[in-house]
Write a structure and sequence with these properties.
Length: 334
């Protein structure tokens, strides 16, 4: 299955910075209730609110994430899951499904400063020269499975949901209606009636779009319907899924500053955590080798080869009689 992708990372040189982002976020928080107020106060108030929400959506989708160098691959065991259904308040518009992976060769309770030095995946959670030179906030990300645990450095990875994107589309649809309402309000009597109707319609568009967005949540099965349920450790600190993930490597400016895989484009289970990397065998190979294998498996050439007659066997080519079309039957023995 194809992964879902609504965001677009931006180069660090074109990133607007946290101060501007904070203004946009604050304006959007104030603007959301103004949509309903606009039904009474008039379409001009609603247009201002729509512009603020639209600015927030565009920042969230197209400026929040800073590109760090394209797609990367990683292996790690699953420490914590953050499904979108457990979010509340305005965070519910963030319908991404998040994973926190402990990278390969990193152990539980390893702090950020130590984990980022551990090969081969520590570099993915370490600050980069581009982010340092830009003066952007940096803290890295540590997580706990249980509240009384010491923190563990993790690689944050997200399957994308469409919550904010759906809200943006609703705002874009509502702006022309609210603009028409503002024009109609300048016309006495019948214009006022049209103004009231159009204003209610514009508010309804945003309301419905917001509800659709909150329900448009991500799920790991978006990338593989056979992936099944994901598992974290049981109370014995064993049993978590060891995952291979591939996706875009980015810096997320919306938090304290950390790197992540966003969106996840490929995810598969490759083992079960048994307490240490020595006791939790996973297939051999570097992240580059894993990436090459996944790319090869999904390439058009591979897909085309899978359709060749000689590759359509079920039990064994000899038993199923599969062969290249160019092959011919041998001449009968007389």
């Amino acid at each position: 299955m194809a992964y879902r992708h609504y965001t677009r990372c931006i180069s660090v040189g074109n990133h607007i910075g946290k101060q501007y982002a904070q203004v946009i976020v604050a304006a959007a928080v104030v603007a959301l209730p103004l949509i309903l107020v606009g039904v009474v106060a008039g379409p001009a108030v609603m247009l201002v609110a729509l512009a603020a929400i639209l600015a927030y959506c565009r920042w969230w989708l197209y400026d929040r994430l800073v590109c760090l160098g394209g797609d990367e691959c990683a292996v790690g065991w699953l420490l914590k899951i953050d499904p979108p259904q457990e979010k509340s308040g305005l965070d519910r518009f963030d319908t991404d499904y998040s994973l926190n992976l402990v990278p390969g060769n990193v152990f539980e309770f390893t702090p950020q400063a130590e984990a980022e030095k551990i090969t081969p995946f520590g570099r993915l959670i370490a600050n980069t020269p581009a982010i340092k030179n830009a003066g952007l906030d940096w803290q890295g990300l540590e997580a706990r499975q249980w509240a009384n645990d010491d923190p563990t450095a993790v690689l944050h990875c997200e399957f994308e949901g469409a919550g904010v994107y759906d809200l943006m589309i609703a705002c874009l649809a509502a702006i022309p209606v609210a603009t028409a309402a503002a024009v109609a309000c300048a016309i006495p009597f019948f214009g006022w009636i049209a103004c009231a109707i159009l204003t209610v319609i514009a508010a309804a568009i945003v309301l419905v779009g917001g509800i659709v967005g909150i329900l448009d949540t991500a799920n790991p099965t978006d990338v593989d319907e056979n992936l099944g349920d994901l598992h974290v450790n049981d109370p014995t600190r064993r049993g978590a899924d060891i995952l291979f993930v591939k996706g875009t490597w980015v810096y997320d400016s919306a938090h304290e500053g950390w790197n992540e895989i966003h969106p996840i484009k490929h995810c598969q289970k490759i083992g079960t955590w048994n307490g240490s990397w020595n006791e939790s065998p996973v297939p051999d190979g570097s992240s580059a080798r894993w990436c090459e294998a996944v790319n090869s498996a999904g390439s058009p050439l591979t897909a085309a080869a899978q359709q060749d007659p000689e590759n359509q066997w079920t039990i064994h080519p000899v038993i199923d009689g599969c062969r290249r079309e160019s092959e011919t039957e041998p001449d009968p023995i007389h």
